[in-house]
Design goal:
This protein is α/β, with parallel strands linked by helices. It has helices at about 5-10, 25-35, 55-60, 70-80, 85-90, 95-100, 125-135, 150-155, 175-185, 210-220, 230-235, 250-265, and strands spanning about 15-20, 45-50, 105, 110, 140-145, 160-170, 195-200, 220-225. This is Carbon monoxide dehydrogenase maturation protein.
Length: about 270
């Protein structure tokens, strides 16, 4: 299996999105998926839903039939049964089992991590799955990961290194506090390695002095703002796939502009 370093040497571009719950991360990631899928430079796009809530699939209009969590449960159960031939057979089938969890969308493939019910330390199983996911990821040019506020599950289940971590926040004190904690996790606690980190304000029409000052105190670059969108809120409320928003929607246009800045800055 390929290591993270070997995967990254192939110039696979890896983005991840995280932030406090309730700031609109799922909607943002869904629209970022669309913006990436519409760019030829993106190449083959893999979207990984690392949030156990699995809200991204619904926002993308995708139905999930199997998750990585379910594959993990099957591997753990086989290991518990202790039948050596079945354990070896299961390990040999991992690539096939992962392919079964892939769902094709419009210009992208979606892989849902889901939730594993088994408690306790299963480091060998986690490592086996992460290696298999890296092997699968090697077939794609761009990877977009939708994560929780914490970064541990991305490190533990997916990859150890990101090209760009996008932290989403609203203008609330708690949202900004989470931004500071996430940045600390990357720089001081070394939970995950990030080449670049940026902040996006969601449901904010403009950046006031207080927001700018707080971002400076945290030491994070502001990538842009996404204005309130009644149309997006209506789609979300009625569980309509957000990828169906018109291209001239103000929220989508803002996200597309932010992506353009990221691509130009990183020379992707």
């Amino acid at each position: 299996m390929k290591s993270d370093k070997e995967l990254l040497c192939r110039n696979t571009r890896i983005y991840a999105v995280c932030g406090k719950g309730g700031v609109g991360k799922t909607a943002f990631t869904a629209l970022l998926t669309r913006a990436l899928a519409e760019r030829k430079s993106t190449g083959r796009l893999l979207v990984i839903d690392a949030d156990p809530a699995l809200g991204l699939a619904n926002a993308l209009g995708i139905k999930i039939s199997k998750t990585i969590g379910q594959v993990r449960e099957a591997v753990i159960q086989t290991a518990k049964d202790g039948i050596e031939t079945e354990i070896q057979e299961m390990a040999g089938m991992l690539d096939y089992l992962l392919l079964e969890t892939l769902v094709e969308g419009n210009g992208f493939a979606l892989l849902a991590m889901g939730r594993s019910e088994s408690m306790g330390c299963y480091c060998s199983v986690n490592n086996l799955l992460r290696d298999a996911i890296n092997e699968l990821s090697d077939k794609f040019d761009t990877i977009l990961i939708d994560g929780e506020a914490g970064l541990e599950q991305i490190n533990r289940q997916v990859v150890e290194t990101l090209d760009y971590l996008i932290i989403l926040s609203d203008s609330s004190a708690r949202g900004l506090q989470t931004v500071g904690l996430i940045k600390k996790m990357t720089e001081e606690d070394k939970v995950i390695s990030c080449k670049s980190i940026g902040l996006v304000f969601n449901r904010v029409n403009s950046i006031n002095e207080m927001l700018r000052r707080t971002a400076n105190e945290i030491g994070i670059n502001i990538l842009g703002v996404i204005p309130n969108s009644e149309q997006l809120a209506d789609f979300d409320m009625r569980s309509i796939a957000l990828t169906g928003l018109p291209k001239h929607n103000e929220a989508y246009e803002a996200i597309d502009t932010i992506l353009e800045q990221l691509i130009n800055r990183a020379n992707f």
